[in-house]
Amino acid sequence: MLQIVKSKSCIKAVVTIVLLAFATAGFASGLYPARIMPTGKVFVYQEDNKVSEISAEAPLPEGFLLLCDGKAGLKMDGLYWVAADKSLFSVTTNADSVEFELREGTAYFALSELPRPIVFITPHGVFTAQEATLNASTDGGLLKGYVAVTSEGTEIGVIEGGSLLISSPEGEKLIQAGNRIKVAQNTEQAAASAASAPKKPGTKPKKGTGNKVLYGVLGAAAAATIVALAVNSGDKSNAGSRDASPSSP
Description:
By secondary structure, this protein is mainly beta. The protein has one domain (about 10-235): Jelly Rolls (Sandwich). Helix content is about 15%, strand content about 45%. The protein contains three helices and 17 strands. The protein has a 17-stranded mixed beta sheet that branches. A hairpin with a 2-residue loop joins strand 2 (about 40-45) and strand 3. The longest helix has 13 residues, at about 220-230. Mean pLDDT is about 75; it is low at about 5-15, about 20-30, about 190-200, about 205-210 and about 220-249.
């Protein structure tokens, strides 16, 4: 089911710090159009094979599956990402779109424009950000949001700064600031998938079918959890524990 939830909590300062810390000092060189900066390590996979690891700022290895050990910041043209610890994702830039595949974890994004659609590929379905509307009064002129994938489903939310028009097989939905969409995993399908396929870095996610699409408001508790995860996901002292997802405040 798909849900939208509205937040009244003041989280602007913390979210801005988390996202823009990578957008300023972390990516000052500007030598490549897309960069990655891990706080720990990022393991690079091709299918089931680990081909390299990244522990310092480097060109973004597009088209490869990336596994975070600590947070990782990404800078693209007008688009910034912060992938949380343990997130498993890949990025591919096409002529007419940017594909962000998230198999597990949480990724925060900040954008100053949307020159091409962003295609979010998740185990529960494919969602395309077709249009972005930024608030003229937004500090820094950035729209900030997140995408999260857990065993319970997928969430895409706008924290502040404007709205996103998202399209999916269920139709289009305009996500305003403080709102989210949530696709809940079909429990019977999830059990069958878990029984039939082992979880590997190189295993392709299955397209979501029979999932329940919900709309709701991003409550204050959920918003606070998003901020806590963004701040603490790279903390090595908490490496043995998993933060709650935004869908589980």
